[in-house]
């Protein structure tokens, strides 16, 4: 009924304004056509610049050609391998995230001791002690002992993800970051590996566990293998139980007829999933460790003398239970070798000492030649590991090991041709000749080769890198000129010219460059048609844009306008903020503290605004100052017309100053509150206490705060609407009904998650309940709410003061914010969708973000700086702050993979990927949608024509994109500069990846959702009612 009344009121307004003469109808239709044409052309123009930036990112990424093409050679068998063979069979148990301190005894009085993850896997120390006790009576002189057990600190190379680590421990290679693309594409590893070599030697390989193995090595595994889906972090038992069952069938049961395997591999993930879900300091981690401890005991009892047991981890974990980075906890895993044979290898130290630093450290890739020699198979062709010394019992055996490893490394060094430096090659040739003469010098040659490979492994195409930097720099220049230097009203007139020039120039450059490419077979550093078309398109866009600009303006004017436009107070503040943020990437120590810097920049803006309102009262007002005190009966307190009230001539009233002071304080308090939610990254841990942890997220205290904040959210939004008399028609429907209904189900969902996490409730199927609620919520927020917004009424109401038709006076309540109020309802839809994919602490932060955005809109409006760059820049900073305060950092390990299973308990493309993307980049999506509120908030329809309004909101959108493009450009430049920096792959490269994704997401949302859909529809709808 309320919606029908709103429709009737809109039609009444339209009839009261429109004159239905044929002349005015023609004028109205022409106005609509002009607006629609401008709208489409703006979308094409911005899409062209976005395409230019996509091409720049593609070229820059192409320059890092470190997703290495495999050398498809296979190592050949030599009779010498059979001379050193010691075992016929092996049981390999890979325990995901088996951090080294999980398997060594820790004194309970030690400050680092934690009962949830220390001393629970004690079978390994027991076996080591048995070996030591058997030789207690030996003299110190004979301390080089015969033993059947070895334990090593197993050092991984970053990135510490399962795929990369599995590739390292099977091929002996040092995988790169982008090799993970193979995982996404489900490609079989093409490099030579111990799995491939076993297959070629007719060995039968049984496998069960993490299905990453099946994607990497499917052709080589037995058909009886049972890979199990392992991506669902919420599922702690399915994979492990499957492995236990598989091993029971083929090993631990008394039925020996099923032991038709030569290699039995199991990969269990329970510890990793439990630590990721709950954090390492949780009873569930202890339970999983005890379970694994008992499992290893069963395996040991079932072994015969010809079978080697290998227990190892692929990586460790940090203090939060995550992995992927380079902290010591993530790099230090475990390797345990056990055999019931005696005199299998020598042991150089007593390995049961209660001191982590005492244990020998080996690289993960060293397991590859070690395994190969123990089983008499060729060392994989591209291996870069070195055999463990302890497996050699005699000098003769050691000499054979060294010789075989030396020849394999030398062959790969020569064939791969990765080391190009002549000086390095001469040094290696000399060391190799020395090693052939003296076997004791082989390790010196190996160390030199490994060092040279690490230095030369990643080949860089500097022409492509330079092209990417140049194209992105040009795109930033174009954005600044088009969205800031040229007045928006002029851009509105030029947009047709821009689009025509872009299309024509792009067509011409593609024809010309492609002809050159096909004639010569190449075009400079461009080797295929895809990159040829990409470069031609980029050049065409650049020429087309500059042709339109230089047709009206010269370079001298552009430079003069640049310095004049950025010379006012708030513009200079915005530029300083931008340079500070972009300048962080020039240092690794500054980059890791980006979260703190962003927080302080927003606080600085809040205090500057507060100072303006308190100490500079003579600043003139804007639309919001007049409309903030609108009376429902009289229109304004001053009694003037809305048009006059919305002019810039009125002074700042005391009420306006109080209002501005209030919003500045709200912004400061919300910003300070969300800053207490911290997620620490490597390098911060000595000075950062993480509060965004699983333990806190799923505590009842956090849940109580979460419920209170969400209950208060509709009330706070309603307060902002009431301030501008906009709580009319659609607003109560959204805020009082749709938003509250969503929050009700949201609270139920996360309370159920907390109960499931904290208590062992078996009589309720929480998975079914949670997935059902999640799908209902997403259908409601993504479909129902957005469809309702498309067909719903505006936030206005007619107030008729006199019943007499001849003297009737009608006031339109909500007129002053007729654009902003309904548009923010769409932002509420986005808030609901994104809010749900975040954990309780993150939802608290996002709820406060809602208040931050509305307070920023009021401050910007009160200070009359709607067209100033400071507005988009502060909103950009807000998106980054909320990214950090929702539990993220610019690292791989901070990705909240478990949120991918909110809509399904299994991997379900594309919903799993979309869920993770929304969780990670939600704040940037919200800001990209909200940016036009800088123009639309407190903007009545009788001040600006639709085309002018569209031009102004496009300008603000352009500044937002420019801010993110400058950060992306800075990451390009400093990543290139720091290519030889030891932290490049841990800090600078991930920051570049995130900067590129953020820029692309911002562009997509701004162009197609904010401008293409929402703004165009809303302005067109209001223009249909209040037209001139």
UniProtKB/TrEMBL annotation:
One of its GO terms (biological process) is GPI anchor biosynthetic process. It is found in: Endoplasmic reticulum membrane. The chain crosses the membrane at residues 39-60, 462-486, 498-522, 528-549, 569-586, 598-616, 698-717, 737-755, 767-791, 812-837, 914-937, 949-980, 992-1014. The keyword Glycoprotein applies. Pathway: Glycolipid biosynthesis; glycosylphosphatidylinositol-anchor biosynthesis. Keywords: Endoplasmic reticulum, Glycoprotein, GPI-anchor biosynthesis, Membrane, Transferase, Transmembrane, Transmembrane helix. Pfam families: Phosphodiest. Its main location: endoplasmic reticulum. One of its GO terms (molecular function) is mannose-ethanolamine phosphotransferase activity. GO terms for cellular component: endoplasmic reticulum membrane. It is a multi-pass membrane protein. CDD domains: GPI_EPT_3 (cd16023). InterPro entries: Alkaline_phosphatase_core_sf, Phosphodiest/P_Trfase, PIG-O_N, PIGO/GPI13. SUPFAM superfamilies: Alkaline phosphatase-like (SSF53649). Belongs to the PIGG/PIGN/PIGO family. PIGO subfamily. PANTHER family: GPI ETHANOLAMINE PHOSPHATE TRANSFERASE 3, PHOSPHATIDYLINOSITOL GLYCAN. This is Uncharacterized protein. It comes from Tetrapisispora phaffii (strain ATCC 24235 / CBS 4417 / NBRC 1672 / NRRL Y-8282 / UCD 70-5).
